[in-house]
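Appendix B, example 12.
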Amino acid sequence: MADLMLLPVVKPDKNKLEDAYEVAEDVATKQAGATIRVPKFFQFDGASIPPLAWQLIGTPFQPRFMTAAVFHDWLYHTHQLDRDSSDALFYALLVASGVRKTKAALMLGAVQSFGDWYWENDKDDRDYLRRLAERIRADDRDPTDYGMS
């Protein structure tokens, strides 16, 4: 897997939270023989950790969480893998990034318990994906290379 390169976004897409990062270069990983590619320009807002848990877990933009969070957010947008496989990849990438297994398991449990709402793409998510596809095409790339329809 290539190193994740991110740029802070001063004015995030309206579908993202107030604080967001944008993928600066494509990043890919393999999962069960499939290659998952996150495109340059994808914006994400870190790991979904409620402020009350920051002392215990860490902040959403803790560097060891970023790779797992960007792939997890991408898979929740594109549904290239089913939800259980997406969550399992999240856990595996956390551990590969140096997160202790107990903390990674706690984070996995949180996405399994509260991820339903994020898994279903609403109109704002679909609109964001259309805008992202336009940026990818304008950069002479094909959105289908990233699992986008």
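The helical segments are 63-78, 83-96, 101-114, 116-119, 123-138. The beta strands are 6-9, 20-23, 27-31, 34-38, 43-44.
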